[in-house]
Amino acid sequence: MKELINKIKAMSSDYLNEIIEIRRHIHTNPELGFEEYKTSEYIATKLTEFGIPFKTGIAKTGIVALIECKNPEKITIALRADMDALPILEQNQIEYKSVNEGVMHACGHDAHVACLLGAAKIINTLKEELQGTAKLIFQPSEEMFPGGALAMINEGVLENPKPDLIIGQHVLPTMDCGKMGLKAGKYMASTDEIYLTVKGKGGHGATPELNIDPVVIAAHIIIALQQIVSRNARPDVPTVLSFGRVIANGRTNIIPDIVTLDGTLRTFDESWRAEAHLKITKMAQSIAEGMGGSCDVRIEKGYPFLVNDDMVTKEVSESAKAFLGEENVEELPLRMTAEDFAYFTQQIPACFYRLGIRNESKGITSNLHTNTFNIDEDSLKTGMGLMAWLAVSKMK
Q1: Of all helices (H) and strands (E), which one includes residue 244?
Q2: What residues make up the domain containing 195?
Q3: How many domains does the chain have?
Q4: Catalytic choice (142, 309, 330, 377)
């Protein structure tokens, strides 16, 4: 085992410059969800160079590649990377800055793709020493609901062959480069989008008695809905209800007819999730009607919660400790953020872990989804090597 680990580490070092170049190319040319056509073409070019067969056009831009080793039916390990960028104007002053204005890889998906390509090259080099099949999934549109994972599942990505398990990797800017972290069981929340339209009767701000003020109604609704979390949610089911967008298009002395509220609900229990939807609807409508107005409620049910299989996660943790050292593998807390890899975890045994990319000495500390997000590119060596080893350790 130690010999194989050393071999993978050596290849990771040898391939690092190439993988950095891949990551920088993707970072420079970001594309939004289901529009990753050039990214997909670039990935296909690299897979062709590596001699790995693949299929394109799955869920528009997705790619699935297969590395068949000896006795390919013995086990199938799926490895997944997401490809899409975010609608953010990049502020980094770097040579590989985004050339697509207003679009940026601010969540590390460029690194995810680069690491999976690096892992693919390593596994393919070792395939005569391995048994089973590595299934490589390059997924579109993680950032945009309803997500590329569900679209790929609906188009059969988990069939022919069906993976015995799936592993996903995501960067984490609060964790130092060289480390990884994971959590067994429930790890990331479900996510729903809440859209409220509060209707009243607008008019002059100086004559409120002639109006039905939707701004005041909306304010009461926002405050009251917080009781759903503070007074109704079970203590053992973490729940967040937040509103990040409120539009009341009036003026200092003009009360509008309509106020719109956009928010999100995150939780970890499906029965409570459904109950919360009903409570949000009933409470918002009742408050509006009680104040003389009305409220239309639209709830878009998003990603399910992400659950890491206990046994698979334990095995990933043990393998990661053998590869990185026990001191570089961390136990992570629950996260209220969401991830469409959750759809995979609801279908087959899975493990979704985090890769450290932080380096304060290099000034790389920005959070995900910020316009100055970047990674310590040394993390690509860790990321490709670890991902390859997690597959190889099951295919020895």
Answers
A1: strand 240-248
A2: 190-301
A3: 2
A4: 142
CB atoms within 10 A of CB 293: 23
Active-site residue identified among 82, 84, 90, 269: 84
- Residues 16 and 47 placed together within one structural domain of the fold: yes
> Which one of 301, 332, 358 terminates a domain?
301
β-bridge partners, 265: 192, 241
Clarify whether residues 283 and 332 are in a common domain.
no
CA distances from 326 to 9, 226, 252, 287 (A): 16, 41, 60, 54
Share of the chain above pLDDT 90, in %: 99
Residues 282 and 361 in one domain: no
Q: What is the mean pLDDT of each run of 10 residues along the chain (396 residues)?
A: 95 98 98 98 98 98 98 98 98 98 98 98 97 98 94 98 98 98 98 98 97 98 97 96 97 98 97 98 98 98 97 98 98 97 98 98 98 98 98 96
Cα→Cα distances 363→27, 90, 112, 372, Å = 18, 16, 21, 10
Query: Is the domain of 165 the same as that of 213?
Result: no
**Catalytic annotation present for 84:** yes
Are residues 194 and 182 part of one domain?
no
Tell me the whole-structure pTM to 2 decimals: 0.95
Q: Is 142 a catalytic site residue? A: yes
Q: Which amino acid is it at 386? A: L
Token look-up 């878009």 returns 300
Between CA 383 and CA 142 the distance in angstroms is 19
User: Rounded to whole angstroms, how far apart are CA atoms 50 and 18?
Assistant: 12
Indicate if 36 and 132 belong to the same structural domain.
yes
148 and 131 inside one domain = yes
Q: What is the residue-wise DSSP string for 23-43?
A: HHHHHHS---TT--HHHHHHH
Where is the domain boundary, 244, 275, 301? Answer: 301
